[in-house]
Design brief:
Blueprint lengths: L1 E4 L1 H18 L3 H19 L6 E3 L4 E6 L4 E8 L4 E9 L7
Parallel strand pairs: 1-5
Antiparallel strand pairs: 2-3, 3-4, 4-5
Length: about 100
């Protein structure tokens, strides 16, 4: 399987990186987020269903990472061998489900 991001989710991810760089005055925390996202993508490729919550209403999976500070919402397309990340959020935001 491969991981693909929708444009809006990628924008939110980059916005979070920019926010934390400005907020902390350094790129250190943003770099931790990048490392966590890369590790999460690797985990999704290996097993997209492991420790993920599923919403039938939204037809999306949810997975927390980086000590539950962030969450991604994604859809698995088995027939296309693709995991599509649909949303990236901080836990300070309202959850989708």
């Amino acid at each position: 399987m491969r991981v693909s991001w929708v444009i809006e989710a990628k924008r939110k991810y980059y916005d979070a990186l920019d926010y934390w760089e400005k907020h902390n005055g350094s790129f250190d925390y943003s770099f931790k987020i990048i490392q966590a996202v890369e590790a999460l993508e690797d985990e999704l490729v290996e097993n997209p269903y492991f420790l993920a919550a599923y919403s039938e209403i939204k037809d999306l999976y949810r997975k927390y990472f980086l000590n539950k500070r962030f969450v991604i919402y994604y859809k698995v397309y088995k027939e296309l061998n693709v995991i599509e990340i649909r949303d990236f959020r901080s836990n300070y935001q309202e959850p989708l489900f």
